[in-house]
Design goal:
Distance between the termini: 27 Å
Largest sheet: none
Helix content: over 70%
Shape: elongated
Strand content: under 5%
């Protein structure tokens, strides 16, 4: 990864490392939000349940429950790795 940050040096100068770090944070936050949403949408569509963020919770309970569970599980893997992966 250091090589990637150094490759930005001709374009960003002394701010190359900061630019690279901001890009990584942006990519991780976007994927943390989009991946569970896409997964919940595809699972619900495949199983015939109502899905979509344009629906209210009462209309798509399974979709929103699955979306929430996926976010909680993902956060659990990050926040509590020692409890989830016993050494």
């Amino acid at each position: 990864m250091a090589d990637a940050a150094k490759a930005l040096a001709p374009f960003a100068g002394k701010f190359a490392a900061i630019l690279f770090a901001v890009g990584l944070v942006n990519a991780s936050l976007m994927s943390a939000a989009i991946l569970p949403l896409a997964t919940a949408y595809n699972v619900c569509e495949g199983l015939g349940f109502e899905s979509g963020i344009d629906r209210r919770f009462g209309e798509a309970k399974i979709f929103y429950s699955l979306y929430t569970a996926l976010i909680v599980c993902g956060a659990g893997f990050v926040l509590f790795p020692d409890y989830l992966f016993l050494r």
